[in-house]
């Protein structure tokens, strides 16, 4: 006897079969991958972020040594050296001079972000050119004009920032105006009646007990602003480290300068127009005072997650106008790519004046700053301080000649 299924029964059986097949296919198919967690505090690829002034932004990082005969001999990065906007077509903030040779980019699977700005002080300045300080400034009319603490907070919210390296305080002591005064005094007075900048009231005012204390307090406030930024971004103090670097000596004592005090070759050839006494004073008094204020500010800030990178002697033997090195034409090297150039040319850019710049590609603001070699040397120091994710303190100095992976050989001890 033939049994005829009614339509509803057939439909039910088809639905059951379809469900069984679907179950088989579901069992055979691999499980869908869980969506990747968005980067955030403690999650994702680690980052090192640099904040502060020209000595960490990469100012002068275009030039590997100096030449008065042909700038191309020392031009390591070319005219786009300071382009840091997303499209690589210009600067995010004009004249911050964040170069590609800056210390932020330590590599080795660690991402780097450079928020520092040449000319920056502890507080944001909107006079003349915009200079972001280590604060939370925001300009409603220009989204790029923010304080560096604000920029750090916004970035750290969606990235895993493990270390923040900072260089700050030099401009609060009037670094550029002091250099300018010393060069003017050198060019404007004879050897038999030297006008020293080290006793000029405009210079000594920066180093009074009261001013040193005031600047030290502002530097401590800058460190605290970094901590506030990181806490506001969702970090505990144990999830990141503040690496505080001080300033290297850019020029030797007077006795170590290779150009005579008499005549004008010291400035117009070497770009180091300081009287011997002033050069020695800069190392014996000015630099220790500035670096002492930075170290004191660390103690005053109350931060517990701090490491200190001492760069005081990082360039010794390769400083501007030092006897062991020279201009390309003086040491007989063709270009910065010639073997041995890193050991025989200077790691600090010449002091240039408006009259000596002419139509060259140099900037006055690059004067007396770590150049391409100097920036890469400091990058090596920062990488060693990073220490594979367990940041440590130490003093960084030249460890040997030549290059390792394109960088000068440095040692952090």
Automatic annotation (TrEMBL):
Question: Which cystines does this chain contain?
Answer: 182-197
- Which keywords has UniProt assigned to this entry? Disulfide bond, Signal
Q: Where do transmembrane segments lie in this chain?
A: none
Q: Has keyword Metal-binding?
A: no
Disulfide bond listed as a keyword: yes
Question: Which GO terms of type biological process are on file?
Answer: lipid metabolic process
Q: Where is the signal peptide?
A: 1-33
Output the InterPro entries linked to this UniProt entry: SEST-like, SGNH_hydro_sf
Any idea which GO molecular function terms this record carries? Answer: hydrolase activity, acting on ester bonds
Name the UniProt record assigns to this protein: GDSL-like lipase/acylhydrolase family protein
Q: What is the lineage of its organism?
A: Bacteria, Bacillati, Actinomycetota, Actinomycetes, Micrococcales
């Amino acid at each position: 006897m033939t049994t005829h299924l009614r339509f509803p029964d057939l439909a039910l059986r088809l639905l059951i079969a379809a469900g069984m097949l679907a179950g088989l296919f579901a069992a055979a198919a691999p499980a869908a991958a869980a969506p990747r967690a968005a980067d955030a505090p403690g999650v994702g690829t680690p980052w090192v972020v640099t904040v502060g002034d020209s000595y960490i932004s990469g100012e002068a990082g275009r030039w590997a040594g100096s030449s008065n005969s042909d700038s191309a001999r020392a031009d390591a990065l070319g005219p786009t050296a300071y382009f840091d906007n997303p499209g690589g077509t210009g600067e995010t903030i004009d004249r911050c001079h964040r170069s590609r040779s800056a210390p932020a980019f330590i590599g080795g699977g660690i991402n780097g972000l450079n928020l520092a700005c040449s000319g920056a002080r502890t507080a944001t300045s909107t006079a003349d050119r915009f200079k972001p300080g280590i604060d939370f400034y925001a300009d409603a009319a220009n989204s790029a004009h923010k304080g560096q603490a604000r920029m750090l907070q916004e970035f750290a919210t969606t990235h895993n920032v493990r270390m923040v390296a900072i260089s700050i305080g030099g401009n609060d002591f009037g670094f550029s105006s002091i250099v300018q005064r010393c060069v003017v005094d050198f060019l404007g007075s004879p050897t038999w009646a030297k006008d020293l900048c080290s006793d000029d009231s405009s210079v000594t005012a920066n180093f009074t007990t009261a001013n040193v204390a005031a600047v030290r307090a502002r530097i401590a406030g800058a460190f605290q602003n970094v901590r506030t930024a990181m806490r506001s971004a969702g970090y505990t103090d144990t999830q990141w480290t503040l690496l505080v670097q001080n300033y290297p000596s850019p020029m030797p004592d007077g006795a170590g300068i290779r150009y005579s005090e008499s005549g004008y070759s010291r400035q117009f050839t070497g770009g180091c127009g300081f009287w011997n006494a002033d050069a020695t004073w800069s190392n014996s008094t000015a630099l220790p005072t500035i670096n002492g204020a930075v170290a004191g500010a660390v103690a005053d800030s109350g931060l517990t997650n701090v490491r200190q990178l001492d760069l005081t002697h990082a360039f010794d033997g390769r400083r501007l106008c030092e006897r062991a090195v020279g201009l390309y034409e003086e040491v007989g090297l063709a270009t910065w790519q010639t073997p041995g150039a890193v050991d025989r040319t200077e790691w600090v850019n010449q002091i240039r004046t408006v009259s000596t710049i002419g139509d060259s590609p140099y900037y006055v603001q690059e004067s007396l700053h770590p150049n391409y070699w100097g920036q890469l040397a400091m990058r090596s120091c920062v990488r060693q301080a990073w220490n594979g994710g367990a940041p440590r303190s130490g003093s960084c100095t030249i460890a040997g000649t030549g290059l390792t992976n394109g960088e000068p050989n440095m040692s952090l001890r």
